Prior knowledge:
The chain is 28% helix and 26% strand. By secondary structure, it is of the alpha+beta class. Strands 1, 2, 3, 4 and 5 form a 5-stranded mixed sheet that branches.
Amino acid sequence: MKTHTRSQSVSTKATSAKFGPGEYLPEGIFPRPEDPSASSGQALPKPKIIKQRRETPSQPCPTCSRPASRHRRYSRRLYDLGDLLSGRPCSLQITYSQHYCPACRRYFNQDLSDLAAPKSLYTHRVQGLAVRLVIEDGLPYRTASWHLWREHRVFVPFATLQNWVEAGGKKG
């Protein structure tokens, strides 16, 4: 004769039930970013990498306007708005050139200011959308951060959002 305890019947019920919106999901259903081998067997989606090249053999020097030859190649990764069809985040892998001007003995990089601010990890599209969510829609920083991941598949920490909004308020 087989006897069932309450914990056995609850666990079978939880695994066989189909979860929908508004239903309780036990811990372990959603994987943690730092644990790719989560108990549910799911990992976060790998980013879709879009490669771009911004290289020229020669570039005019911004100081003296003389032609400067290419010295090195560098690579930079930027986080962009995700691919909504596949549900994957997007990363831009940009290869750009560094140039050297022998006249003024100066190194300078290919201009990438149309894509992102210097030393930024995110494109202007991500920054603009994030600031609009907070200012125009009135979302709190944490909610806006969650909205960016859920709807646009780009993870932006809420403290970064706060820095962007505060910097935008001072400039504007």
